[in-house]
Amino acid sequence: MSATLTALSNREAYKLGDFNLIGRGEHATISLADGEVSRQHATIRRDGANYWVVDVGSSNGSYVNDVALTTARMLHTGDRVQFGRSIFLFDQGTTAPDLDSQVANTKTQWGKPAAPTSRPATLFVADLKEFTGISARLSPEQVAALLAEWYMDCNVILKRYGASIDKFIGDCVFAYWHGTAADVCVSAAQAAQALRAAEDAATSPTRVLVREQQDIVLDCRIGLHVGEVAIGAMGKGINTALGDAVNLAFRIEGLTRKLDKPLLVSAQFVEHWPEGRQYFKSCGYHEVKGRAEMIEVFSLK
Fold it and tell me: Between β-strands 263-266 and 220-233, what pairing exists: parallel, antiparallel or unpaired?
């Protein structure tokens, strides 16, 4: 079933194909003359009869019905989609879109954000290995397609294991689970293994193309940690986790490059999953930016 995005500003309709790159760049499928839109801002991909929108690390974010996109989201007729200042109505032909009422309400209303609350959480940070170098060898369309597929993999797998995806930052994903009990740590470890396995086995057209033409196989690196975080809405309807534990989770993931390990977990993670200690071995103590004391990290045996 075909679908369109109709701009509320001038009612220009854009027919959507199987893969659509939205941005200011010359390679964008839907090119927008909007200073708040990134060169590669978002993608809309068709999957069977459904269309999924993903923000690909834009500077100013993407929104569906005034809610910020932090993961892939399936679109429905009548959904209001915003990139920068540009607002569109999605139509898949199931009902006639009410453009007049939408145009009358183009100002985004965020409402009062929920006050952040402190709670224990299990933290997950992953990114694609050497993606900057990989991007230099690919066209903008291929980069956007790979990111969109990576985001979809993260979305499906992390949600399968009960995680909340906090945000995507370029090729990096940050997610968390509420609580730090052993069963939560098990879910995080299983999600990490499943995500790495999914990248190894990926057979999407874009993955196959870059593998055959450029000998590029995507690989991801992951850091796991547990700690106290503040979770709440920080503006524009975005719920996020903040705190020293979050910073440390990113530092642990960063150590995967230095130690050349696909997965690293903190000593605190191992302590909260005593039965899992048998699966890990210590990689020693290491300095990380922003901390006076060295931290111990563990890799899989």
Answer: parallel
